[in-house]
Amino acid sequence: MDMLVVQGGRPLSGAVSVDGSKNATLPIMAATLLTDGPVRLRGVPALADVDTMARLLRSLGADVIRSGSQMVIDPRPASGIVAEYDLVRRMRAGVCVLGPLLARCGTAQVSLPGGCNIGHRPIDLHLRGLAALGADIRICSGYVVAEAGTLTGARIDLTGPQGSSVTATCNVMSAAVAARGETVILGAAQEPEVVCLGRFLNDCGAKIGGLGSPIVTVDGVERLATADVDIGPDRIEAATLAVSAALTRSRIRIDNAPVSQMDAVLSRLADMGVDCFAGDDGLTVDARHGRLRPVNLVTSPYPGIPTDTQAQFTALLTTVPGTSVVTDRVFPERFMHVSELIRMGARIRRAGNSAVIEGVPHLSGAPLMASDLRASAALLLAAVSAEGDSQIRRIYHLDRGYVRLEEKLNRLGATIQRCQDIPARSVSENTRSGE
Ligand code: UD1
Predict the structure, then answer these.
(1) Which residue's CA is the nearest one to ligand 1's atom 33?
(2) Inter-residue contact 130 to 171 (CB < 8 Å)
(3) The pTM is what?
């Protein structure tokens, strides 16, 4: 198992580019099951989660061939209907095959994803939406067993206690494409990755309207053809890199940052006094003047501040003088990184779904344990900015969602080494998903 050894305290400079979006890639890979021919995906990031989804599709019988950042998925040989626990437990996005499988085969058995390091994560909205389309759903031996003779369009409200659900919207929208008649999804997720999926399905012949709004309409079609798809840059990776510049009080350029999807993140950085300029050559983030202000920050579904950037912002605010409050409304328990940041000298107090942060002059390096994907990124950024050395273990979480983040940071001037750790029993057994 790999670990990262970080010599902290060096400023960053230069330019970096962002890989393809993980959360756009995964539901599109799942939705290829709805098409009737090979789908070519370009700009696919080299991530552990993408490999897991490829394994899942292969386990269903699809051909998946990857060459560099291109992937060709041919769903025609796929006849399987079971998404096994061993794959879904590694990555919750495995549940995205539920809607496409149901639409394709009239039946699906998908493992319930189980517990998760970022809090309780039910899939009741997915099931409610598919049931409204006419599926008969039951839970049997840890699996969702869904059956539907014919799916029929319906009016479905997918608003959950924390707002919309990204992958529930993906699942219901995908199944509705093959339903008879019109489906109206109220409380649909507006995330750019949902829009990306909807556009791909439309390119294949689906009739989806209202993408990017809370009301999505789907007119069912007989069959879907195939289409190529370009995966855009990852807005969460871009935000993570922007925070790295702020945390190290540096100036960097992020060449292909999807700036139009980053309003909330950039305006929060601006509130803190970080200069962000978007131009033809990308996004420049400049915090060299070093005088940052504390802020209160609340995560919410898009277009709000993404929960997937909460840990990184929390790390950043630990060294901003004054009191900041970070509240996660999407995943109220997602604060596993806090105790590790405290071990680096941060002053943070938990209060319900908030972290109250008193800025300290600097963090100190420490041995650290990553708990989930974005927490790993937050700890890595904190370690890069800290005085002294850190060792970060369990970085398989990081590799699920970032393409060699340490190499990108090294190209910007950080000193991070990836090396082999001696696997401890408790470490190797913890492979639960974190996002
Ligand atoms: C997706 C993203 C993940 C991100 C999250 C929130 C992918 C592959 N993953 O995850 O990176 O952190 O959106 O932006 O795109 N909920 C319910 N019932 C449900 C489903 C969700 O109550 O059936 C709740 C969740 O517990 C959470 C909130 O709704 O509080 C939002 O979760 P959701 O958008 O579903 O997250 P994912 O789609 O799993």
Answers:
(1) 165
(2) yes
(3) 0.96
